[in-house]
Amino acid sequence: MSTYTPSHSHSQQAYRASSVLTATPGQLVVMLYDGARRFLTQASAAMGERQIVVAHNKLTRAENIIRHLRGTLDMDQGQIAERLQSIYAFSLGHLRQARLDQDPKKIDEVSEILGKLRESWATIAAA
What we know:
The protein is built from five helices and no strands. By secondary structure, it is mainly alpha-helical.
């Protein structure tokens, strides 16, 4: 008789699911930034290695997260929401140009911007 032992990957998925289910809204935003930056790092590396399809797929995943962040903005919150919307629009445009130019530096620039936003959200979430 064999016994089931969860794989490391399965354990990570279960932990991630549990983390998402118990996170505050601020923590969820931080997680989204982390995911976007992870995909951007992977896209930049793939683009640098001329792995066009991988770079495209990773960029698409990061862009989807940025679109989600933009789509969930509460525009009734005034200037902060407007500025975030502008940053997200800039980021999406910059990533589009990175794809056209095959320029990983542009991807890294967006990742840096998101990293700064992530740190701000992490501070807010911890308060």
